[in-house]
Amino acid sequence: MAAPWLALTGPGFLRSARPWRSAGYLLATGLSGLLLCVVLLVSAIVSGVLVMVLVGLPMLAALALAGLPYAALERRLLRLLPGRPPAESPHREPDRPGLVAWLRTRYREQSTWRELGCTALAALVLWVIDLTAVGGAVLLPVWLLATPALLALDGEQVNVLKVWQIHDQPTAFALSLIGALLLAALSYPLTAVAMGRAALVRRLTGRTEQDRRIGELVSSRARLVDAFEAERRRIERDLHDGAQQRLVALAMNLGLARLDAPTGSPLAGRLADAHREVGQVLSELRELINGIHPQVLADRGLPEAVADLADRSPVPVDLAFELPGRPPPAVEAAGYFAVAEALANIAKHSGANRARLTGRYADGRLAVEVSDDGHGGADPARGTGLTGLADRLAVVDGTLTVSSPPGGPTLLRLEIPCTLTSRPPHRSG
Hints:
- The longest helix is centred in the middle third of the chain and has 52 residues, at about 210-260.
- The strands form 2 sheets. The chain has a 6-stranded mixed beta sheet with strand order 6-7-5-4-3-8, with helices on one face. Strands 1-2 form a two-stranded antiparallel ribbon.
- About 65% of the residues lie in helices and about 10% in strands.
- The protein has helices at about 5, 20-50, 55-65, 65-75, 100-110, 110-145, 145-155, 170-205, 210-260, 265-290, 295-300, 300-310, 330-350, 385-395; strands spanning about 160, 165, 315-325, 355-360, 365-370, 400-405, 410-415, 425-429.
- Keywords: ATP-binding, Kinase, Membrane, Nucleotide-binding, Phosphoprotein, Transferase, Transmembrane, Transmembrane helix, Two-component regulatory system.
């Protein structure tokens, strides 16, 4: 942060391009601020007049977003100043496609209102300071520098600042020398004004340290989710292709050994016990593999996977689940295990006679609802698995809402923002 300011005290400051780039920056921001002032003033007047017929209300609402394009311009103009990397946009991508989602995201962001404040400041105050600084630090010394040339062109006299009348070249050259000294001396405050303005713009329109940390946390969480999902798939493959196949081979060998053992002998009994144990271990291993990452989920997608859960549920489930494509693997896994936990809770705690499971994709969100006709009273604080379910959904930016009054019914709704891939639709119902 201090490095650009230290350049003011460097020995090569006057020989560098920094003073001229600072002047160009202030001139550009001053002119753009003046134009912005005119545009905002006209827009506010027109919107105020049209409010009487309600047409101006959308225009007034749109004025709140006027800071977005102007802040983007301010960030681009910062590139005129050396010594600092370009300012990053503080805005995040909407969690779903469409104009409504974009507007909702922008109106909720603090950075939108910071940029609006910067825009108002630039339109009302900063452009005056910018143009005054450029005029005082550049135009006045340049005018003095040009006095000998102006006198030579006129041949008789030249008016300096409409105050002095110069008739001879010696006086003109003296003023030219003063102009050169002023230009050098005023380069320091001019550059300081430009750097101070740039720092203010970075603070109001750029990505703050908090925004950067939040972005890094979101990115790192997404990477961890993807890595965890990949590792879970690897473990599932290793168990399926390794340990399970070995157990199947062992079960077959024990079955063949039982055929060779004398009927009714102690050896035949021990082989039968061993064969039965291997079968139980194999069954438990298959359940473990299915719990790590069910093969039906990987092969056929979420609708078919939740249909399999509904078929295996002790409580009858009415199913209506339709998706026009496939969510990302992490979203599929989160949705699948959330449904599995919900159906398990219904079987264990609800006392329900029937349940209903629906799923659809709309407005960039996967929405799943699980309801039952049980006695209700589901409370995450009582350790029914709802807390863990909410934590699992939070990893993929999902939300969980539960309505379960005493006496029922219970409605559990989960939503996960995602984008579907263009695969053939899966339907279950």
